[in-house]
Structures are given as structure tokens and as C-alpha cells.
């Protein structure tokens, strides 16, 4: 009833109903007389909203989200999917976090022993709670930072080395703005001319090492070229992979490093039992994949897959037509015969997607491919080839558990309600009211910082920069139909299940919708205060 009365008042103030073919004239709203003691009026509204939010959040409102659920960005029916494809690392094989300090230490020692970096860097250990996935690094400014979907740096999340950079300095560094132009941000695969985005889980130890090395050089007043330092660190991390160190650690203790192997077997076995065709495309070498799959699935794991491709060199596998497939024998040695078909049970190396499509005829939305890297695994497949895609986001499980806490629910709901108060009450501009609004703004900022720190003290959630999605989230939505914490989430759904994305309103679709949602009540107690501006 409230909104209808407001609408009628607005029409009547225009001097009548618009005639056909003419636009109704709406007279400017007259300033409303301020009630006496405006600050008391505002604080009364504040207390009303406090009570409303408290009454609307009983304890059982928490734990509403299931960490083992699959979330849809796009409508997709598994009934239509005939072919399932998989990456290996962090998709079929989930790795324990214990792998990250091993990568960090090995790369740190390579820097010292092979690149002749100062011995003092050895004092740094891996800090698992420092960085999060999806951050950007400005090479020339030595800044590690979090950027939102609109290319704005989230203030309070810019670090040089291990120290936060003041907001004023960040704004000055970018010419008086928080905005990073698109041409600087990134190309199609997240690599711009001077800014790189860290998108895979293996980049966590890389960000930590980069920050530690910068911290050492700054702390000891050593001059350095930012581009050289960045390249040396990334090369040292690359050496850990190229030299096979990471593969050795995992192979030596698979029980320690590989998680959910039995669930991976259950997923693959279930799909095959329902007549689905499976394939594997990974950048990892055959010997490593073979040992891992034997551990998780058993010695006959290749019989589950119609096609297995190793050392594929993604993402160029999806775009470069020049590399032919090579067959490997049982010992992993390259064969010389020309590939005219891809056989079940055989192992192939390199190749390209165009030959893959020609030989298999697996095209379009009947193919669903899972991977953990939004650029290297999913972007080309969705945008250029029309496959359906599923993103594996292990961090999702922890973030949902935090979202389900009472502290998060109360903090976020009150933050949203307070934001609604600020929007409505900003029309009161006398001196006392401005002081009240300033106090509310301060409280809102404190709430945002508290909510951010629940996820990560430095950078917050990988999905949110306060109210906006992160740049990572934007890419996640653009490049994946589905996303989930692990492949095992498929076990919670039938193989013919249809996933429907939730319809969330655009800003223009329902002016009061968000306010009503955050308070949980249609009887917002001060609609009258908005009558002259709605």
C-alpha cells in the first residue's frame, strides 16, 4: 500500500494524468519541513532499524548455504551433457595446502642459490594467511592489490612487500584515482603490459615470495629494478615446476598431498555407469598423472576415459593449430606415427583443440569441461567453442562456512540496513544531522572492515570488494556455467539434474527490493521520508 500511495502523490503533483502521446509533467518536489530536533529523529530511525534487524535474524537463519552445493551462473541441464572433460591438477586431483610452503621454500632457495639473491631472504617463511587468489600485481609499482569488477582498487588492500600502502598514496600513484584503465589491467589471459593477475592456486606461494623479497629489499634500502625482481621470482617458481620438484613431493607422499581421491573415483565411475564419455586434457606429464590416477582410481584408470591428453600446453592448446598430437607408448616414450584417430586407453601428448574437435566430433553444449584456472582452462572453451564449463574453486568451501556464521550474517545485514539509512536520510543536511550521518558512515566503514577481515585480514574475500564483485568474480561469472568447491559436489546431484541460476534484480527493476531484502520486512518504517525523492 505504501509504494502505491507514493506513486499516486507523484502523479497528482504533476497536474493530472498524461494524455496519450504526451509526457506527464511532474513538478519538482518541494523541500519537506525538517522535524524539530533532526538528530533525535535520525537516531530514532537508527534504533528502529536496529530492533528490526535483530528481530529478523534468529539463530537458525545461519547455515543456510551448503558448502558442497553447485552454484549456477547459467542455466544448464546435465541431461543434455553427453561428454565430460577434466583438467588434472586441482580438478581431478585436489591438493592439500601443505604443498604451498614446499613450493615457497624451494623457490626461495633457488633465488638465493642460483639467482644470487641476498642470504637474508632465507629468514622468510611461508605465510598461508597473507594472500588470496585473484589479486593483481603492478610490476612497475611493486603493488599487490585487489581490484573490483569495475577496475577500481579496493582501498585498504594495496601492499608493497608485506606493508600496506596508504590509500592516499595509492590514489596518487594512479593519477588521482583508484581506477586502473583496461589497457593496463590485462589481456585475454590476465596479463597486461605492466599488471598481472594471479588466477591459479599455485600462485599463492608466488605472491607470498614476491612480497617477501620486495619487503627485504625495501627494509634494507637496496635499490632494485621492479621488472627484474618480478621476473626472477616468477622464474624461480617456474623452475620448481619445470624441474619436477613439485611432482616429486606429491609422488613421494600421495596420502599427504592428494585429497578426496575416493570421491574423484566415485564421480568418474558414476558418469561412465550412466553412459557418459570422458576425456582428460592436462598440462602435467604422463608419469605424474599416471601415478596420481593409480592412487585415486586404480591401475585401470585409463579405461574410464575415451581420450587422455597430457602436456597439452594450455591455453595455447585451444588457439594454436600448428602442434600435432603425438602418441606415447606404455613407458611414456614418444611415437612417430601420424595420428588419424584418438583411441580409448591410449595416451596423447600436445596437439590442439581444432584437431581434437575434428577427430572426436565433440562440439558445443553437449560437452562440459571442468578446470580450476578461469583463463587457461575455461575462457576459450566457453567464448570461442560453445562448450559448457565448470569452475573448481576450492576456496568456496571455506568462504561459505564463514558466510554461514552468525557473526557474518549479523554484520552484513546491519551493514546493509545502515547503508539504506544513509541513502534515505542524506536529505537532512543541517549541522546536527550531518554529524549523525558522519557517525553512521564511520560505523559503516568499520563494519565493512570487520566483514572483510573474517575472510582475510589483508585482502578479504576472493569474491567481494565490499559491496562490488571482485575482478575474479566477474571472470568467474563470464567464463563458467557452474562453479563448486570440488568435483565431488557432483555426487550430490542426479546426472540429469537441471541447474537454475537465481534471478537477482538489476538496480532498476525494483527500487526498494534490496532494502526490503536486507531488513526482511516489507513494512520499512520510514517510507514517508522517501516520498519526495522516490
UniProtKB/TrEMBL annotation:
Mg(2+) binds at residues 87, 372. GMP binds at residue 89. Its cofactor is Mg(2+). Gene3D superfamilies: HAD superfamily/HAD-like. CDD domains: HAD_cN-II. Binds 1 Mg(2+) ion per subunit. Pfam families: 5_nucleotid. Keywords: Hydrolase, Magnesium, Metal-binding. InterPro entries: HAD-like_sf, HAD-SF_hydro_IG_5-nucl, HAD_sf, Pur_nucleotidase. The active site is at 87 (nucleophile), 89 (proton donor). SUPFAM superfamilies: HAD-like (SSF56784). One of its GO terms (molecular function) is 5'-nucleotidase activity. It comes from the Eukaryota. PANTHER family: 5'-NUCLEOTIDASE DOMAIN-CONTAINING (PTHR12103), 5'-NUCLEOTIDASE DOMAIN-CONTAINING PROTEIN 2 (PTHR12103:SF14). Belongs to the 5'(3')-deoxyribonucleotidase family. This is 5'-nucleotidase domain containing 2. It comes from Pan paniscus. The lineage of its organism: Eukaryota, Metazoa, Chordata, Craniata, Vertebrata.
Amino acid at each position: 500500500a505504501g509504494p502505491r500511495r507514493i506513486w499516486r502523490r507523484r502523479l497528482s503533483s504533476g497536474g493530472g494524468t498524461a494524455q496519450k502521446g504526451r509526457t506527464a509533467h511532474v513538478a519538482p518536489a518541494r523541500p519537506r519541513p525538517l522535524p524539530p530536533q533532526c538528530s533525535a529523529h535520525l537516531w530514532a530511525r537508527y534504533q528502529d532499524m536496529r530492533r528490526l534487524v535483530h528481530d529478523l535474524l534468529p539463530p537458525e537463519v545461519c547455515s543456510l548455504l551448503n558448502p558442497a552445493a553447485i552454484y549456477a551462473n547459467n542455466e544448464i541441464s546435465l541431461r543434455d551433457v553427453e561428454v565430460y572433460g577434466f583438467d588434472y591438477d586441482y580438478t581431478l586431483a585436489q591438493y592439500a595446502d601443505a604443498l604451498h610452503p614446499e613450493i615457497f621454500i624451494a623457490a626461495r632457495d633457488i633465488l638465493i642459490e642460483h639467482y644470487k639473491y641476498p642470504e637474508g631472504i632465507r629468514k622468510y617463511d611461508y605465510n598461508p594467511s597473507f594472500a588470496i587468489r585473484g589479486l593483481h600485481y603492478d610490476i612497475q609499482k611493486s603493488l599487490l592489490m585487489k581490484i573490483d569488477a569495475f577496475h577500481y582498487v579496493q582501498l585498504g588492500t594495496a601492499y608493497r612487500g608485506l606493508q600496506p600502502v596508504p590509500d592516499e598514496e595509492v590514489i596518487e600513484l594512479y593519477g588521482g584515482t583508484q581506477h586502473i584503465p583496461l589497457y593496463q589491467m590485462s589481456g585475454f589471459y590476465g596479463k597486461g603490459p605492466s599488471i598481472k593477475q594471479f588466477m591459479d592456486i599455485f600462485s599463492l606461494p608466488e605472491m607470498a615470495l614476491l612480497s617477501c623479497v620486495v619487503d627485504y629489499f625495501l627494509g634494507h634500502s637496496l635499490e632494485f629494478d621492479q621488472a627484474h625482481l618480478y621476473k626472477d621470482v616468477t622464474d624461480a617458481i617456474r623452475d620448481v615446476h619445470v624441474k619436477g620438484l613439485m611432482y616429486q613431493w606429491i609422488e613421494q607422499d600421495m596420502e599427504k598431498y592428494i585429497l578426496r581421491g575416493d570421491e574423484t573415483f566415485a564421480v568418474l565411475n558414476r558418469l561412465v555407469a550412466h553412459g557418459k564419455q570422458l576425456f582428460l586434457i592436462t598440462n602435467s606429464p604422463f608419469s605424474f598423472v599416471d601415478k596420481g590416477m593409480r592412487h585415486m582410481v586404480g591401475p585401470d584408470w585409463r579405461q574410464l576415459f575415451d581420450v587422455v591428453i597430457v602436456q597439452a600446453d594450455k591455453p595455447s592448446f585451444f588457439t594454436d593449430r600448428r602442434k600435432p598430437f603425438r602418441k606415447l607408448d606404455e613407458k611414456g616414450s614418444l611415437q612417430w606415427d601420424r595420428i588419424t584417430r584418438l583411441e580409448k586407453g591410449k595416451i596423447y601428448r600436445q596437439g590442439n583443440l581444432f584437431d581434437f574437435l575434428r577427430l572426436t566430433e565433440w562440439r558445443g553444449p553437449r560437452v562440459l569441461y571442468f578446470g580450476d584456472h578461469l583463463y587457461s582452462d575455461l575462457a576459450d572453451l566457453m567464448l570461442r567453442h560453445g562448450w559448457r564449463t565448470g569452475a573448481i574453486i576450492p576456496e568456496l568451501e571455506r568462504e561459505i562456512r564463514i558466510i554461514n556464521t552468525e557473526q557474518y550474517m549479523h554484520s552484513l545485514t546491519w551493514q546493509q540496513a545502515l547503508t539504506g539509512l544513509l541513502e534515505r536520510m542524506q536529505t537532512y543536511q543541517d549541522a546536527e544531522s550531518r554529524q549523525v550521518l558522519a557517525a553512521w558512515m564511520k560505523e559503516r566503514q568499520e563494519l565493512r572492515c570487520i566483514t572483510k577481515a573474517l575472510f582475510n585480514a589483508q585482502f578479504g574475500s576472493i569474491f567481494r570488494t565490499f559491496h562490488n564483485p571482485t575482478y575474479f568474480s566477474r571472470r568467474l561469472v563470464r567464463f563458467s556455467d557452474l562453479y563448486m568447491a570440488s568435483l565431488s559436489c557432483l555426487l550430490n546431484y542426479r546426472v540429469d539434474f537441471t541447474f537454475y541460476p537465481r534471478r537477482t534484480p538489476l538496480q532498476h527493476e525494483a527500487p526498494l527490493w534490496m532494502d526490503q531484502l536486507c531488513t526482511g520486512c516489507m513494512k520499512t518504517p520510514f517510507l514517508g521520508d522517501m516520498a519526495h525523492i522516490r
